[in-house]
Write a structure and sequence with these properties.
331 residues, mainly alpha, globular, Abi family protein, Abi_system_AbiD/AbiF
Length: 331
Amino acid sequence: MTYDRPWKSFSEQLTLLKTRGMSVTDDKAAINYLERVGYYRLSGYWYPFRQFTIHQDPQTKALQTNVSDQFHLNTHFSDAVELYLFDKKLRLLVLDALERVEVALRVDIAHLLGKRSAFAYLDQKQFHPKFSNKKFYGVPAFEAWQRKYLGLVNRSKKKEEFVKHYLRTHGENLPIWVAIEVWDFGAMSQLFTMMKVPDQEKVAAKYGINDFKVFASWLRSLNHLRNIAAHHSRLWNRNIIDQPKLPELGEIRWCDDFIGKSDLIAKPFLLFAILRHIVRVVCPNTLWHHRLAVLLENFPTIQSDNKRTISDIGVVEGWGAWWTDVDENGQ
């Protein structure tokens, strides 16, 4: 279909929202947000307030959802703005934790592999043949990773003096304890997945995880979370595509609240809980999880008749009982 919606001025955009039932108490402030943030980005935050109807297809009998342009009663422009501002604070907190996790895990991998060789990450024999030969878009995973790594190095050469210095002084390859500084979260996660099982188990055990496959899935999911947050995308009620695995029932107390609950596993709060788990190992005295708890407890008060709450984030019932627990054995 050819796109045929006309360009609209900011005033016309606001008028359109009003005709669809949105309440606006301060036109000037609303237009200011449309100018600074944009109609399309804000639309992700007023989308939950649109009216939905469900009907059954007479032929297939499948249930179908129709989304109306009309808003629920008492939906205010400020409802969307408050969610947008909340989401921004949430992303900043998440990025803070992800940085700590990424940096710590880079060191874990470099310290483990570097003991064998300064250039272990370039030697396929140091990795599990099953995982490193697995095809990735038709290319062996190890080869695909090397291509990604070289791209990261070439990008870093343009802006990082330490990369240019090492390459100029010591040759074309960086030792692993230097190379980790150009890895992104995705490169780190992918390399971990290719490591030999005993190596993956050793790193996972440091973070209290018995099953290396569970920990590898946590890193993949956190990379997905990192991409959402780093690109300023809506996070608070996101459906998580790359969902993490969970340990067996009883292995980690807080995980039990999510096991077998697909609706919660698909929401971001589980990833926040995983961050909390890892960050508390990296920084035992951290207050990061306390700051996140305060933010969640101050979730915006919604005026719309279609109320939104932290349950949309996937927060589990009774989470406060373990979220700030100081007993790390119970996690």
